């Protein structure tokens, strides 16, 4: 089908549901039947319609893809990180979609990571896993586990060829290059080796695709003999497994949205029974890191923005304070090394790193020069080390890898992601661009931060086009990040803005709490306030403003389309959670029960039902003039099911038929979209071409 007539939905009997006295008719519930030929025909027709409606952008899409490709050093090599007697790194090769995972032996006297010219293989390298070879014959490929055993002999890795995040686990003998007969289908993320590398722990999911079991597999035995180490029956909780950096303990992390518990198994006794560090208490979250004779506990017990304590590793009991709670400074993680502890935190909307010397000396924060940036620890597999590997970026600074000397307190730049000359042949110069922090005023008087980046010559008279991005859920923070593909927008005069709205974690736990459950609408009204502010402050105009968000940020897009359709010239909603109430009402769907502590339980609570009913996008489509909408989804997505945006677009066409609505479905991908880097660049070029068209810059 290549007609430019909007795709009609097949005529099916509507589905009715009744909760708390409210009856809802769903005309498009039939689209949830993934195996129904009519569903596939509908999605295929939508793709053809979208392609026909955007055919005039084919040249622009090709140009945007080429700009990203030209600016990217395609043959490249990551900064090697040391573990034991090897340097581990990943290479990419021009023309190949996936990374090549390698290692090279550490040479006598070698302390700095080795480098190569133009990303060429290191002399003496050993290829552990080539993603391009594994992906041959498949439209999609993703790695779940990549876990080298403590002795460096075995590699546990897992693969997904459909995008549904269900992996087949295998073990490779790195001394011979051969695969062991050990093979476990249907696994999830997360593995951990025993100290002697004879046992491998892994995770599987239940029928609702909730990670609920940790298994123990003994190398050389069939998977049918594997033993369940822990099964989590409370459907609010999910589990994970990992080996501590010290390689002394296996940690089984058990979490709901607001409560947690950690079980430990000595890594040298993998058949031992798991022991709880602290029993779960409703509303108390904690994580565990091993350090010598103690377990470090990062927790929120009486500490809204978290505090750091420790307890005995031999007999866990009382928590002894290390860092007291400081409102407004959110402690996010602690990493233990033999002679230092490093706390990842955020304050005043920015990330930071605090070093605590173990042998004495005052704690201190590592300083960074830019007013807006994002910093965090990178790969640091060695427990005994005098250096920290960290990653730094900003809206104008490409991804940068530093080693921080814990003795001299000196930062050494190991590598900054190259940005090659663009179409005009000019090298990238950060001085050509500028980043800003602005503040919008929400309806309730709350100040909401906005991060912006643009070319220095961009006018401030309201004539510049703008893209505003948002998320605002799960305490996830949209910290400043650099994007090569974004340069193609900036160089065409487009401003890029990030709205740090409530529901995210940018300003601490309270910022998150004020944008969830029965305060969720703050997320949406904050975003609209940011959009209105950009217009009022002269950054842009409403007819030159496109909004963009993905997943829970796609819910945001659908909600603001209903709340303020006049505020935007276009909306991009990727894998959007737009039929939230229907999904959260169905506990058989993947992850629904675990989500109740984020959104509320509309099944049992009529107040939650009424509140969600009032904002969920699909339920609130109205006969108004909507901005143009592009919805992008994936058929095999297990987090936000494809039928949510499919139903949403169908209802928009029926209720407000004068609008311009497009649906694009990746028929062989998952939540993250296409898996290969070139395919991902093409997807981004498709979206950005549509955005530029809406902004009059095509």
From TrEMBL:
Domain Peptidase S9 prolyl oligopeptidase catalytic: 481-696
Biological-process GO terms, alphabetical: proteolysis
Keywords (A to Z) from UniProt: Hydrolase, Protease, Serine protease
Gene3D superfamilies linked to this entry: alpha/beta hydrolase, Prolyl oligopeptidase, N-terminal domain
Keyword Mitochondrion: no
An example Gene Ontology molecular-function term: serine-type endopeptidase activity
Short name of one Pfam family: Peptidase_S9
InterPro entries assigned to the protein according to its UniProt record, in alphabetical order: AB_hydrolase_fold, Pept_S9A_N, Peptidase_S9_cat, Peptidase_S9A, Serine_Peptidase_S9A
Its EC number(s): 3.4.21.83
Signal sequence bounds: none
Domain Peptidase S9A N-terminal: 8-414
Family, per entry: Belongs to the peptidase S9A family.
Protein's recorded name: Oligopeptidase B
Organism: Micromonospora deserti
């Amino acid at each position: 089908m290549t007609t430019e007539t909007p795709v009609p939905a097949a005529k099916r009997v509507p589905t009715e549901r009744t909760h708390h006295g409210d009856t809802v008719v769903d005309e498009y519930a039939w689209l949830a039947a993934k195996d129904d030929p009519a569903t596939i025909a509908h999605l295929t027709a939508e793709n053809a319609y979208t392609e026909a409606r955007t055919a005039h952008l084919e040249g622009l899409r090709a140009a945007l893809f080429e700009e990203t490709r030209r600016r990217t050093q395609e043959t490249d090599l990551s900064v090697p990180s040391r573990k034991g007697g090897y340097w581990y790194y990943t290479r990419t090769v021009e023309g190949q979609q996936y990374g090549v995972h390698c290692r090279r032996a550490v040479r006598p006297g070698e302390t700095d990571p080795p480098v190569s010219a133009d990303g060429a293989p290191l002399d003496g390298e050993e290829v552990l896993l080539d993603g391009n070879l594994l992906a041959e014959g498949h439209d999609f490929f993703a790695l779940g586990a990549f876990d080298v055993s403590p002795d460096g002999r075995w590699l546990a890795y897992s693969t997904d060829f459909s995008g549904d995040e269900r992996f087949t686990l295998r073990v490779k003998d790195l001394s011979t290059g051969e695969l062991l007969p050990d093979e476990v289908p249907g696994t999830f993320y997360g593995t951990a080796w025993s100290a002697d590398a004879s046992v491998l722990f892994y995770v599987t999911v239940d029928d609702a695709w909730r990670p609920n079991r940790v298994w123990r597999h003994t190398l050389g035995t069939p998977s049918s003999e594997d033993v369940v180490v822990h099964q989590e029956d409370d459907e609010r909780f999910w589990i994970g497994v990992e080996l501590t950096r010290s390689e002394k303990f296996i940690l089984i992390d058990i979490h709901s949205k607001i409560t947690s518990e950690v079980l430990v198994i000595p890594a040298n006794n993998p058949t031992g029974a798991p022991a709880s560090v602290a029993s779960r208490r409703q509303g108390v979250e904690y994580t565990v890191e091993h350090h010598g004779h103690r377990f470090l506990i990062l927790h929120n017990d009486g500490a809204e923005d978290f505090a750091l304590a420790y307890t005995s590793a031999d007999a866990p009991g009382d928590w002894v304070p290390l860092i007291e709670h400081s409102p407004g400074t959110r402690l996010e993680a602690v990493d233990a090394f033999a002679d230092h502890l490093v706390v990842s935190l955020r304050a005043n909307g920015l990330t930071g790193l605090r070093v605590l010397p173990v042998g004495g000396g005052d704690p201190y924060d590592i300083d960074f020069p830019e007013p807006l940036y994002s910093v965090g620890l990178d790969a640091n597999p060695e427990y005994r080390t005098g250096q920290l590997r960290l990653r730094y970026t900003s809206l104008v600074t490409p991804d940068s890898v530093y080693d921080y000397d814990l003795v001299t307190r000196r930062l050494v730049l190991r590598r900054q992601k190259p940005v090659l000359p663009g179409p005009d042949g000019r090298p990238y110069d950060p001085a050509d661009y500028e980043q800003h922090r602005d503040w919008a005023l929400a309806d309730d008087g709350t100040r909401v931060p906005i991060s912006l980046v643009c070319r220095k010559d961009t006018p401030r008279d309201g004539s510049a086009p703008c893209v505003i991005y948002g998320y605002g859920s799960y305490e996830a923070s949209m910290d400043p990040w650099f994007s090569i593909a974004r340069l193609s927008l900036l160089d065409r005069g487009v401003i890029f803005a990030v709205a740090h709205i409530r529901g995210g974690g940018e300003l601490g736990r309270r910022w998150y709490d004020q944008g969830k459950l029965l305060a969720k609408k703050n997320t949406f009204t904050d975003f609209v306030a940011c959009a209105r502010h950009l217009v009022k402050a002269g950054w842009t105009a409403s007819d030159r403003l496109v909004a963009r968000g993905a997943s829970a940020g796609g819910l945001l897009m659908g909600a603001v389309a209903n709340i303020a359709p006049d505020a935007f010239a276009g909306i991009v909603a990727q894998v959007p959670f737009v039929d939230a109430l229907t999904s959260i009402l169905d506990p058989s769907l993947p992850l629904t029960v675990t989500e109740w502590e984020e959104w509320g339980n509309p099944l049992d609570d009529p107040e939650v039902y009424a509140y969600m009913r009032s904002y969920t996008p699909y339920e609130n489509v109205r006969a108004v003039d909507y901005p143009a909408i592009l919805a992008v989804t994936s058929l095999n997505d297990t987090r936000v099911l494809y039928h949510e945006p499919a139903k949403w677009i169908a209802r928009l066409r029926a209720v407000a038929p004068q609008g311009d609505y497009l649906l694009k479905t990746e028929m062989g991908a998952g939540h993250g979209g296409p898996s290969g880097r070139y395919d991902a660049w093409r997807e981004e070029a498709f979206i950005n071409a549509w955005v530029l068209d809406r902004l009059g810059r095509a």
